[in-house]
Inverse folding.
């Protein structure tokens, strides 16, 4: 018999194997200062493109004032206990009512974290007779929710409606046998690649198949649609989303999440979502803070306009400079480059140390081997100067990557770091 810990001493996983050279710089970086377009990293000011502070609310004076006032009034504990036990307040219900109205659904229910919320929504909606069909590029929280499922599940190829149709045919055969139903899951916006989920096309399949649709709109909420209600509103099919999910961790620059839909669904979830039934209620400063943030979403459409202005200019600048941004049709700006992990590391180091531009770096297994994805998250507080400096810096590193400079020093760099 082996010691349980033996395996992780030998193989730390595709990312973990680089932990000794990557931690503190490429992963778990520590920023100093207020969340903004420029932050300090290792003592240097950087243009920061790696934080989902889409609307710039993290540092909005009204938001900070409301958060501080609520914490001073209530502390961080109130209310104690789960909602069903002793954690219910009129403010929690007010926030739910306002969120439901904002995303044009009958009712909403708060979740403490988006991740756990997604897991628990999926877990409570299906039993072993039901079938789940979900996008192959789904967020970990969706995948983990599906992992709890004791019945059949199928993945369809990312954003491929023909593949979904094929899987729905299989799912229908299974569900007819078991007497269960079908849950289809996609995202409003895929956070790595910036592509909107094909909600409109998926909804059209309801004419042919019997299923309910769950949309994780973590990145669409506040950034898409005429009123900011998200990807469903953008695509004109918000009414056809049966279960709408969004988090406060992106546009709202907070913590917590919510699920919205018809009143019977929300009532069922309220009594059956284990992440909420068996966990403490969201603290008051998160709730009162979210009310103020939501109000800003409603009455400050210029924040969304500014975000899009920044994103459009950044994406145009990068495309004009010859970069491949894939199929993004949102503000998320992925830059795809070809190279190995060591090349990616020295390139990102160059980008940060020399050009003072900070982006996230995404490698295998999140994207295929041999590809490097530098992901830029524009926000309403970035400036044209930030964009100009960034496009210039990207052009410089592209030239070095293509001429093999990073390849030559990449392996050497890792050797040196490990020595
Ligand atoms: C698509 C998607 N779903 C769910 C989550 C989880 O949300 P939270 O950070 O509130 O746990 C995230 C955020 O990381 C996300 O990007």
């Amino acid at each position: 018999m082996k010691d349980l810990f033996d395996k992780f001493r030998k193989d730390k996983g595709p990312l973990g194997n680089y932990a000794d050279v990557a931690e503190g710089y490429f992963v778990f970086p520590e920023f100093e200062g207020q969340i903004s377009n420029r932050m300090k990293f290792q003592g240097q000011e950087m243009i920061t493109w790696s934080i989902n502070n889409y609307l710039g609310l993290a540092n909005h004076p009204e938001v900070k004032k409301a958060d501080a006032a609520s914490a001073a009034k209530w502390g961080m504990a109130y209310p104690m206990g789960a909602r069903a036990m002793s954690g219910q307040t009129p403010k929690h219900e007010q926030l739910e009512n306002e969120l439901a109205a904002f995303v044009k659904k009958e009712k909403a229910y708060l979740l403490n974290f988006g991740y756990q919320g997604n897991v628990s929504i999926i877990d409570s909606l299906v039993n072993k007779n039901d079938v789940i069909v979900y996008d192959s590029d789904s967020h970990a929280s969706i995948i983990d929710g599906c992992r709890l499922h004791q019945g059949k599940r199928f993945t369809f190829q990312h954003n491929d409606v023909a593949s979904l149709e094929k899987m729905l045919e299989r799912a229908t055969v299974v569900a007819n046998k078991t007497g269960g139903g079908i849950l289809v899951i996609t995202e409003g916006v895929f956070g790595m690649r910036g592509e909107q989920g094909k909600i409109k096309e998926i909804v059209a399949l309801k004419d042919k198949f019997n299923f309910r649709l769950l949309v994780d709109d973590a990145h669409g909420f506040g950034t898409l649609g005429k009123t900011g209600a998200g990807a469903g509103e953008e695509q004109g099919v918000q009414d056809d989303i049966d279960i709408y999910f969004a988090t406060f961790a992106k546009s709202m620059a907070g913590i917590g999440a919510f699920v919205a839909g018809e009143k019977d669904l929300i009532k069922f979830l309220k009594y059956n979502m284990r992440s909420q039934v068996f966990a403490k209620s969201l603290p008051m400063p998160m709730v009162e803070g979210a009310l103020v943030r939501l109000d800003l979403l409603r009455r400050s459409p210029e924040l969304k306009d500014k975000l899009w202005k920044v994103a459009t200019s950044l994406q145009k600048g990068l495309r004009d400079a010859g970069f491949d941004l894939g199929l993004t049709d949102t503000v998320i700006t992925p830059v795809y480059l070809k190279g190995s992990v060591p090349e990616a590391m020295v390139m990102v180091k160059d980008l940060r140390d020399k050009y003072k531009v900070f982006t996230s770096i995404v490698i295998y297994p999140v994207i295929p081997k041999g590809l490097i994805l530098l992901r830029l998250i524009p926000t309403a507080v970035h400036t044209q100067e930030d964009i100009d400096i960034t496009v210039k810096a990207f052009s410089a590193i592209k030239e070095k990557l293509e001429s093999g400079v990073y390849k030559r020093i990449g392996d050497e760099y890792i050797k040196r770091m490990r020595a």
